[in-house]
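pinned: reference chain
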Amino acid sequence: MILKNAFTYLSIILLLVSCHGDKQSIGDEMPALYPAPQTLAFNIQEGYLINPVTGKIIQPILNSMGEPIRTGVPVPAEGKTIHPDSVALPKIIRAGEPKVVPHNLDVFISPVNPNIVPLNIESQNTFTPGADSSSFVLVNSIGDTVPTGVPLAITGRVGPCFQPQALKALPPRMKDITSIHMQYLDVAQGMNSSHVLSIMEDGHGHLWFGTGGGGVTMYNGITFTHFTEKEGLGNNIVWSILEDRHGNLWFGTYGGGVSMYDGKYFTHFTEKEGLSDNHVRSMMEDSQGNLWIGTWKGGVSRFNGETITHFTEREGFSNDPVNSIFEDSQGNLWFGIDGRGVIMFDGFSFTHITEKEGLGNNYVRSIMEDSHGNLWFGTGGGGVIKYNKETFTHFTEKEGLSNNSVRSILEDSHGNLWFGTEGGGLSMYNGESFRHFTEKEGLSNNFVNSIFEDSHGNLWFGTEYGGVSIYNAESFIHFTENEGLNDNRIRSILEDRQGDLWFGTWNGGVSRYHGGIITHFSEEEGFCNDPVNSILEDSHGNLWFGTTGGGVIMYNSLTFTHFTRKEGLSNNNVRSILEDSHGNLWFGNWGAGVTMYDGDTFTHFTDRDALSNNYVRSILEDRQGNLWFGTYGGGVSMLNDETFTHFTEKEGLSNNVVLSILEDRHGNLWFGTYGGGVNLLKGETITHFTEKEGLSNNIVQSLLEDNNGNIWISTERGLNLMVLDPESIQGEAFFPVILNYSLLDGLKGLDFILNSVLLDRNNRIWWGSSKSLTMLDMNRFKIPVDPPEIQLDNVEINDQFTDYKNMNDSEGLDIGFNSVAKFYNYPLNLELPYKDNHLTFYFSAIDWSAPHKIKYSFRMEGFNDNWSLPSVETMADYRKLPHGNYTFKVRAIGGALKWSEPFEYSFTINPPWWNTWWAKGAYGMASLLIVLGVVRWRTSQLMRQRRKLKAEVAQATLQIREQKEEIETQRDEVLASNEALEDQKKELELIVENLKMTQSQLIQSEKMASVGVLTAGIAHELNNPINFVHGNVNPLKRDLGELFSLMEKYDETLEANKLEKVISEIDHLKDKMDFYFLSKEIISLL
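pinned: its structure tokens
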């Protein structure tokens, strides 16, 4: 029975040890970074008491006379008409010849009659390896003769790659003078060298920079990881980089041959392993998967993964430096040779093209085929040459090229050709003209060794001693006084019907950009020197300029006509101008309401004439013909026929200062406010967008709808793009994406100027800011749509960096794992002892469209299932993790505001030996054995006590029997004595009764007095013994009761299961009973 119970207990313990609870799976859905906007009823009946955005109590609006303004209901519009006879005639000044300003706005140089040379086929030399050969013998640098023209078995030397620790990269910098989105990375930002020779993007999105002394650097937008000879690279000068179709990276070095990196190890190919030359200038993988290696003095080599074939002068090639290798769309290979022109290989023979054939220069540094099938050759002194298989077209400095030494060529995704020159910076050719990018335009250095376009369209330029320059051609372009503007601060912008651009400046005057020429009008030319706040072209082609202090000026291409307060304006401070559908002009004044001009007379509307406020910042006419006036404190006023209706915070606006107004293509009205963000009036509802919903700032300076239906919002602190879904904006659930643009996105200034915005006919948007005139070409601009690519980079244990590929015992880590992730530094299937429970995870995401906008969120399943708040932090630190199984998850969100799929990393922290399942089982078994031992010991102890109790009970039983017999005898005697006493008592009571009767008889006689005394004395003498008997009989009765209980307990001793309890009660009764006194009393009584 005991053994059976033991197995039962053991089974229960093992079951508890082995069980674990499954946690409910938590969804991976991530919330948006910003909440949905608030939509309310546009309440024009009762109105609101509390501002729904600020939560403040809404105060009534008072006009300039201190009277409350009625809002939400139409009120009569009674303007004051100024009779023409009561004002002066406008001043007309003949326009003088404007000043022509030198400028650098979009400077393009068109080639004039470039030199075109036909191909001289007769002089071409073609050599077939094996058939045409020379006596040349290749001898490498160590003196060995190298066989050429035949395949040779080759095996690389495998060496370790010691994992370098990633270094935090500082953000790219931008020169103050730059007018384009040109940034740079150099040693100050964390680069290992400022001399960048080659650039490549791998399949994971990382950029690799081959440097002239600093090895090769991997860049992910957040960190630099440097690989040098110390980490296992063959040489620190890396001329060329290649990623093959298997994802391996190949580095062509100067003196170290080729180093292949598979993500774990370096495999080196040098002259010792069979390479023709340790100085590798260029590499290319052809469409057949062969790797071509161009060397300095060893010709070119073809490697198929197992064998290598060298082609030199003996095979009809060349032994001069091979600067570039390119495969054209026909499968032909082209080799740019230093001093030997170009060599083409069709798979069978080599064809040489030199100056004799019309090339123009024999020092070919770079080769590229454009999207039209033309080949371009960059030369060392002869400019760039276009070859169409029949003719050579030469482009040099004379034709607009910035420099005649061209080191690199690239065609971007827009079809533009880029030429990196030796001292002339960059030349971009769009097929018709050249545009130059030099240090003056923001390039870090004018010696451009390499050009690369990444997966998001950014251009990367490796320079001689300026690090890497990054150019986003799809970003903003800025124009300042350096480019020829009269003032950096452009307050108003207009495109006239001829396509000329007009810029109203802060310092005064207006500039016109026409046909690549900037002209400027000021007071000397008949204009004025006051700030120009607004520009309008009316239906007759006249231009109207609203100024600060100078009233309104009309320009008809011949004269300037000035209108001020003297000529009928209500105020000389004009902030906005509009021509309505009836041909009337409306001027929004600062402090004097609004003025309407019908061509003959002026009509003034102020807060005395039912306008809500006298400070009018913007005017708009909607498609129904209603006029809307945005005021500074009075909300917005709508003029419909002959009535004004005012809408303020009471009706649902977020702020009563309305700076800008826009009607979109759906008929919705947008209001930009000062401090309340943007309000969208759609039908009978109003929706608020503030910083809480994603705006960069709540002070909105301008609103513009682009040709895609998206809304651009300029603010006091940056630019915003609201991406609208045409279907969602018409529905009830309206949740647009708001993208922010700041200095890191290419802006020169963040504080934009009120209503200084224009969308021109070429689909370009222009903004005025305090720092520059900013332009964005919407034909090139792309809205980001893809989420970032997230990756785990490194895992640290106990705050210690570990090279998992090259671990040793000295690191003191007793961990287990299967392998290490390729190209990263974290172990797979990691198992840790319980003491190594401090883990730090380093991660990064790649989004080259906006690396600075990436944010991360992570969680540790098994420890904390809640996602962390989005942050730019690229590490997660966990300390004192309890033992168990964990999955670390991290995801990223970037410029598109879309979350990436989570990256998952699972690992295990093993429990200490005393907390393992087998230890717990052992604890259970030991506990069971202890319990069994205790039970067995206790059972034997109880058995001994039982035997002892039986003996004691038997002895006690014998004594009790003897005492019982004695007591029974004494009881019988006591009972007998008691009966005798009772009889005596009865006799005495009878005697007493008789005496009382006799006494009663004697009392009747005179002699009874003495008899009564005698009787009382006799009765007293009889009562004393009777009372004595009663006093001793009562204790006897008590002791007899206890004696009877003792005898009953004796009867219970027959039950073996109650031994202990019975004995205890017997002992208790024995302690209470005085046998000696009892026996003595019984005997005396008897």
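why pinned: The first strand starts at residue 38 and ends at 41. DSSP finds six helices and 77 strands in the chain.
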